[in-house]
Task: structure prediction
Amino acid sequence: MNAVAVNPRKREVSLINHPAPDISAPTEVKFRTLEVGICGTDREICRFDYGNPPIGSDHLVLGHEGLGLVTEVGSDVHQIKPGDLVVPMVRRPCQHEHCLPCRSGRSDFCTTGDFVERGIKECHGFMTEYVVDHEQYLCVVPPDLRDVAVLMEPLTVAEKALIQIWQIQKRLHWECPVVEGKAPGHCRQAVVLGAGPIGILGAMALKVAGFQTTVYSRSKPPNLKSELVESFGARYISSETTQPEVLAQMLGNIDVVYEGVGGAKVAFDVLKVLGLNGIFVFTGIPGFPLPHIMIDGELIMRNMVLKNQVALGTVNAGRDAFEASIHDLGIFMQRWPEAVRSLITGRHKLGNAKELLLGKATGIKNVLEVG
Ligand code: BGC
Ligand code: ZN
Result:
């Protein structure tokens, strides 16, 4: 089978021949990979800054944003059948008895660090023709989402963030007054940092949750991304022309910031203007090297206390976020099909993976068509 793999010891990214997997346990499912999304994490692995091959292997098959078509199921598989579209979850639990999150099906909160992640950490990924995995790690996707279902995994980042936002903000039990036809966030201002796939999908999820949503990103409008953002009813403001303080004046109390840029400078500059009772969610992972930067620590701490603020980081996603992602992607497609489709700016053959992974990042979401 063809596969795209990285060999950190040889510092090589290449198309390799990888043995085809077979079902070897009754709870396993075999699927043919249809598409795999490429993201910053893949590019970082290809710079040998992150990720590891499985123990005993020289190479790691890449790919964690998968979409597959089920071809075969084990005798103890009950919810999934051949012909189903599936999106695989990424993380698999550690083996330690004392890791309560992993033992409770929430390896996304693993406390030992010995989890593995498909296509990232010690477990082969989805940039190959066939994959076998256990039923419990696969999510069935409705066939009408086939064209855009490769966006499901990146959307789980926003969904896990939103689940936590609602949980934390339960402390504000006087939330928005109920208004017929309006979602629960309707009296709240959300700012999304970054207009990459994580930012834009996050902005869509916040819109569906009812938030008045502004995407704050570098490039001056009008541009492709600002037009895309405005096409689904969010506002676009450029950080090049509008300082965070001005942004806060324009918007009023900023209730939620959803960070999707992976850079500390803009993140902490915006944290400074987070509103009363506000919540700031970090999702971006700054890449190496990690230079020291100046932040207004005293002011930020003063605000965090005097304004009852919360900042949290979030990584990976559990089944709840995958389910929410399937649900929301369906809503996005009903409301803004063109905007969702336009997030996928390139579909490429497996043979072109190397150039995509190592070359300059272009477009919004690039996808490999596997089969
Ligand atoms: C993936 C997550 C993963 C994280 C850290 C992200 O790109 O979407 O599933 O946990 O990288 O490895
Ligand atoms: Zn990713």
